[in-house]
Amino acid sequence: MTEPTVQPGDYLFVYGTLMQAIEGNEMAQLLHNNSTHIGTATMPGRLYKVSYYPGVIDSDLPNDIVHGDLFRLDDNAAKIMKRLDLYEDIGPPFEAPYEYRRVLRPVHHGNKTIQAWVYIYNWQLSEDARIPDGKFRA
Fold first, then answer.
1. Distance between CA atoms of residues 23 and 17, nearest Å
2. What are phi and psi of 39, to 5 degrees?
3. Which residues pair with 63 in a beta bridge?
4. pTM over 0.85
């Protein structure tokens, strides 16, 4: 199965170490330097503490909301997403099943719903690690 192509102008929703408010992360800087920060946004899902970083899984429950930042990718979209995929342990040299999968999901920004790329956690998580308010704190 071929992954859909990432294009300039595509959106990316981040909820952890790539967020606007977190500094000192080389990949966060790469994203910020090659995109436009649209603002804060939310998406349906459940947020978990995996280690020093979080993971999101899908949820249809109305109270399961994840908070994060929305970015619009600039001219280097495909190149930047390949580097971010490696940061998120997707693709070679990592063994499948990968820790995350990158998928399109509806994200809410203000009164708009936008389709954005999101890294969804792909491994087993413990309910004890859930972050109930959906807000990651480094």
1. 9
2. 145, -170
3. none
4. yes
